[in-house]
Amino acid sequence: MARRGLARWVLVASIVVIGLTLSAAAAVWSTETQVQRTQQHRDDLAKVARIESQLLTGYVDEETGLRGYLLTGEAAFLAPYERAARATPELTTALRGSWTAVDGPTELVDALEDAHDSWVDHARSQIDLVGTGDADAASSVAETERGKQLFDAIRDRERALADWVTAAEDRTADRLAELQTRMTGLLAATLTMLLVVTVAGCLVLWRAVVRPLSRLAAATRTVAAGDLAAALPATGAPEMRSLATDVTAMRDRLAADLHGTRQALDALAQSGPAVEALRAALEPVGGQVPGIAVAARLDPAEGVLAGDWFDTVALAPSRLGVVVGDVAGHGPASAVFALRLKHSLLTALRAGLAPGEALAAVCADLADAPAGQFATAFVAVLDPDEGTVAHANAGHPAGLLVGPARTWTELDTTGPLLSSVMAGRRWRTVRSRLAPDDVLLVHTDGVTESRDAGGAEFGVEGIRQAVGASGTDDPQRVVDAVAAASMRFGGNRPRRDDHTVVCLQRGRAVPGARAPADDRTSANR
């Protein structure tokens, strides 16, 4: 196992287990098929036995009725004879059909039918003698002895047929018991094999994966706690040793990056107090209201000043405003413009303006801004009591409204981007339904425009796949999953733009909730 690797060992073991399982299943299926056939044969024999018993009863009724008629001469005694005579042909036909189904010797049924036909001919001759008034001749010793011999022949033929059925039933019962014993043995062997394989697999996994992984995890936690010199054990299967080697390389890379980061921070602290103050001013205030969970993440493309920004503000006990913006460019100038837009939009929302009105008011104040300076912005107001989200989008990537069943609704652009040349323009405010557990996901274009080595973009589809793969609706985990997936997609190449992801989720139970507004109704304000 150490030379071949755990994956190859598991593949070989899986093939062996699958082969044994299929063989056991085939044996069980074959035995079960034989059991069913044997049970059907047993049932057919039982049917033959029932018909044979009914036929014998008919023969006895015929003989009894005839004897009573011969002794008394009264026609009433012939009633049992006549009933049995009418039923006997049908029973004989049924016996032949069932007899064929059990592969019985046809000569036994033929002999029984011939014996009965002979007795019937004799019985009719006696009935005719009584009918012509010659009852003494019909009851003579010779005729009586002749009738007894013929009926004894019927009984002998019937007994031979019954003995064959009994022997066949005994053979069938023995065969059925044998098959049932075989079935029990097969099931016991299969269960034993599965138990042995399961125990062996658990032991191998424990020794080769679980125990080494636990040791590696404990050592990794030590590194995460700050001890970058902690040893990372490389034990277990080759795959586990390779993982430990990769984790060690990652630790070494993080240590080197940490050293560089400390140097950069030292330089920033010595030469850029104004930049630090500007960065602190762009930090989100992080307003909250009951019924809305908020999580966000901003990863600058370079340095500590980003062109992206976001914030939330509590507008009322049940209304939460959210603003996400992206200013063209990076550095101090873009950060100053971002700070201006951020505070202007938050102020407009606090003043009670709808998202579209807030964008229009802020754009009107940008007359003194350079014509080449512009930004995109997404502004929304969430009301968990009403179950609504009202948004306006100034050239920003569409917000994504995600339902619990992974239904996606795009909150598209409702007006142009923000710039001094757009003064006087209007932005629509669009109102959508916000159901319990719905998630509003807002991002900047740096997330979707992350490119792989072939030049393909991460795109909105990448966000959807990341949210689906996260397997959770927890806002913080969704934010981390989307950000990490976009960064992995871009590889180790330097990022060209900031990455910002904001996630808001409406809780399931909101006290005093009112009926939600109609979905996707627009209002131009």
TrEMBL record:
Gene Ontology molecular function, alphabetical: phosphatase activity
This protein's GO CC annotations: membrane
A Gene Ontology BP annotation from the UniProt entry: signal transduction
Pfam family, one: HAMP
Keyword Transmembrane applies: yes
Domain called HAMP: residue spans: 207-259
PROSITE patterns the record matches: HAMP
Protein's name in the database: HAMP domain-containing protein
Source organism of the structure: Klenkia soli
Transmembrane residue ranges: 185-206
Keyword annotations of the record: Hydrolase, Membrane, Transmembrane, Transmembrane helix
Entry annotated with the keyword Transferase: no
